[in-house]
């Protein structure tokens, strides 16, 4: 998301190396004056494990 030259990065990256690449690319985007990095390192997970967590959360939250 960007507004007035401020770019907000959110989400997950599987490794620190990939997170650093993404933030490096983002800094080089024309018009970006400030980068707010909210990316977090999540580790490598597969679709099945993410789906199981989602199902568990839905059951526990009503």
TrEMBL record:
Record protein name field: BON domain-containing protein
Domain BON, residue spans: 1-43
Organism from which the protein derives: marine sediment metagenome
